[in-house]
Write a structure and sequence with these properties.
There is one protein chain. The chain is about 25% helix and about 20% strand. By secondary structure, the chain is of the alpha+beta class. It is globular and about 40 Å long.
Amino acid sequence: MRKYTFTQAAPDPAAVLSAVTEFGLAHLPGIVEGEELDRIQRQCGRLVTEPPSHVEHMGYDNGVGLHARRDRLTAEFGQLTGLFDSEWMRLVAESYFAGSPYVFNYDLICVLDVAGTRHPAHQPHYDRLPNLKFFVYLSDTTEYNGAFRCLPGSQGYGKHVQRENRLRYVLPDLAEPRALPAELRRGIGPVEGPAGTVLVIDSDLIHQAGTVTAGNRMVVRSRSFHPQYLEGPPDPAVADRGR
């Protein structure tokens, strides 16, 4: 079993943070299950088919990708947004940011990937906007229906090359996080899991969206990051999807 995988039903925040620090992610199958999983699946399904007017469409050429502030969805999709208000997630985020200010699970991105879904996140990259991501599979997810792909332990590269930008809260241009050395493009593999699996991800981890070749995949995720990235004139980088 991979060292970044935990199977306990109630995650230990310290163990999760340790895995995120060492490997760039923690893989937690079975965290959401039973009636809670059913309710969240239904709400996410309704969101992708009947999105409110304020929700941003992410321009997928196939499938659906939606982005919104989490607090703006709570009144209508409270069980879905409440998933990202878990105490264990708050404890992980608090330790991850280690005294630095942050906005906790600020936004929500809900995706239905199908065969033919294509977008820039299929290229290996780290995120332009540094964040801690909670990523939830709402479908049984394998390599064939688009499992998240990553290179465990690779999160140090983005932190190194973006150090000066991060000190000034400056975001790189779109191409820079995809300009990776050849050795960081090798060994990227899928992280599979049943519906209800939670991935906790350092966004500097080298990763890419999986390609759906059979079936479909529904996922929902939320991000925590420094509030400075929300200040000043609007910048499209704030909406960088970190897919």
